[in-house]
Amino acid sequence: MFTILSAAVAPGFALMSFFYLKDRFDSKPFSIVFRTFVMGSLLVFPIMFIQYAFETEGVLQYPATKSFLLAGGLEEFFKWFIFMYAVYKQDHFEGRYDGIVYGVSISLGFATVENILYLLANGVEVAFLRALFPVSSHALFGVIMGYYLGKGKTDRKRGSIYVVWLALATPILLHGLYDYILEIWQSTWQYTLTPFMIILWLIALRKVKQANMVPADVIPIEQNKWKA
């Protein structure tokens, strides 16, 4: 049991540490980051219940609808909703890279609990592949979501609302495509998913670099009017 729990939790904490320590300016208090991690972890159970209900009733079980609506749409929407409700208007969210930290935290909270449940059901033998693919992909979706939400928070322009919605649409599309690959190429998925993950990592690391070029102290003062 301890081995399974350790193998399930380790990838999430390793990835969280990686992105947390990438902050070049002002790292957020770990207590706040951990709180968002816990919020993300609590999403697993209601989402699993909804997905199970649809599966039991045989609704939306085609590869495209299952991938883009029940997996990508449902999971990324709830992550985005938690971010908007619990983080977006808070004073401690004040820089573009903050968005990445909180996005990754929520996503990895979800991925870690999901990973624990999966390894308990299927054994530790699949832990390595789970770390490389599902857990990492959740973190990368969180990077992209957080980047756009950070951009929406700090750029007080007419297009900022568009960027906030882009923070929802882009992870849904990428997550849906990830699951669609698994649905279509069930026996040879690794040959398609591996290059997909490489591209996803490159996109995410580029977003990290771009976010780290804009420190919180250069955000326009007009952002005060957006505070709750």
What do you see in this structure?
Helices cover 76% and strands 0% of the residues. It is built from eight helices and no strands. Helix 6 packs parallel to helix 8 (189-211). The chain has helices at 2-21, 30-42, 44-57, 63-86, 96-122, 127-154, 160-184, 189-211. It has one domain (2-217). With 228 residues, the protein is an all-alpha fold. Residues 217-228 have low confidence and may be disordered. This is Protease PrsW. Involved in the degradation of specific anti-sigma factors.
Topology order in helix (H) and strand (E) letters: HHHHHHHH
Main β-sheet: number of strands, strand sense, barrel status? none
Overall pLDDT metric: 91
* Secondary structure tally, helices: 8
- The portion of residues assigned to helices is over 70%
Q: Return the domain count.
A: 1
Poorly predicted regions: 217-228
The secondary-structure class comes to mainly alpha
* Percent of residues in beta strands: under 5%
Measured distance between first and last alpha carbons: 44 Å
Radius of gyration: 17 Å
- How many strands? 0
Which shape, going by the Cα principal axes?
A: globular
EC number: 3.4.-.-
Protein name: Protease PrsW
Main location: membrane
GO molecular function, one term: peptidase activity
